[in-house]
Predict the 3D structure of the following.
Amino acid sequence: MEWTDEVKTKFLILLTKKKPENLRSQIVNQLPQEFNELVYYILMDECFEMSYPHIRERLLTLAEKFDTDNYSVYLKSTEVCSSFSAACQVLTINENLYQVKRRIVLIRNKFLFVRSL
């Protein structure tokens, strides 16, 4: 994909400046179709999301305008990833609780053994 200076400029304008809705639609229509794929790659980057949340919001708006089908797939995949993340956090908490309970039992057994001497 060849990015001309004009396309780069339009892309930066979309990401950094608030524009009226009709002007944004015109700019989106002028961007190459390959831009659609690029948007989704950027949206899936968690480091980018944490570093530039304001730009991510604008990319979501653009993604919805480019291709509503891909946008709905993105939303569903994000929901699945969030569910997996939440499940991992629960499992980690349970693992930590198990380790804590195990340590308590070991300390108790050690105390009871020392006490019986």
